[in-house]
């Protein structure tokens, strides 16, 4: 659905809710990427370097966080436009694949954070 296309007012509430949901996904993806960047920078700024394995691991955490944020942006953008079409056409498809992909990505990323905190202690 193009932004300049007019839709009946009866769909306004659902379309605006879809937009709010999309913006929430964007904020979440920015926060996830930012947290990974922050943890990586704090590791190197606080002088915890020296252990090559730990340094490599923290770089993986940073890359995984940014990758997860980018993945969330791509998936939520595609889903936003699909949902807009679905709303206007009168039927909704569940987002189970999107939820599974993002949940597994978040689980893996948070597991690496947990492993990092275990390794530094």
Describe the structure.
This protein has helices at 12-45, 52-89, 96-120. It is mainly alpha-helical. The protein has one domain. It is elongated.
The biggest beta sheet, please? none
Q: Which structural class matches the secondary elements?
A: mainly alpha
Counted by DSSP, the helix tally is 3
**How many DSSP-defined strands?**
0
Uncertain segments are none
Global shape: elongated
Q: How much helicity do the residues have? A: over 70%
Q: What is the count of distinct domains?
A: 1
- Cα gyration radius (Å): 19 Å
In percent, how much strand structure appears in the residues? under 5%
Distance from first to last alpha carbon = 51 Å
**H and E string:** HHH
The average pLDDT is: 85
Domain DUF202: 15-84
Keywords: Cell membrane, Membrane, Transmembrane, Transmembrane helix
InterPro entries: DUF202, IM_YidH-like
Main location: membrane
Map the helices and strands:
Blueprint lengths: L11 H34 L6 H38 L6 H25 L1
Helix pairs in contact: 1-2, 2-3
In short:
With 121 residues, the chain is mostly helical. It has 3 helices and no strands.
What tags apply to this protein structure?
mainly alpha
């Amino acid at each position: 659905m193009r932004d300049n296309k007019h839709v009946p007012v009866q769909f306004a509430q659902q379309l605006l809710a879809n937009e709010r949901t999309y913006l929430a996904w964007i904020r979440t993806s920015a926060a996830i990427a930012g947290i990974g960047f922050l943890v990586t920078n704090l590791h190197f700024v606080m002088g915890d370097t020296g252990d090559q394995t730990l340094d490599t691991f923290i770089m993986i955490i940073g890359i995984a966080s940014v990758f997860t944020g980018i993945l969330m942006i791509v998936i939520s953008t595609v889903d936003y436009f699909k949902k807009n079409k679905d709303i206007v056409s009168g039927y909704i498809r569940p987002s189970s694949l999107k939820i599974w992909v993002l949940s597994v990505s978040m689980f893996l990323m948070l597991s690496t954070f947990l492993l990092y905190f275990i390794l530094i202690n």
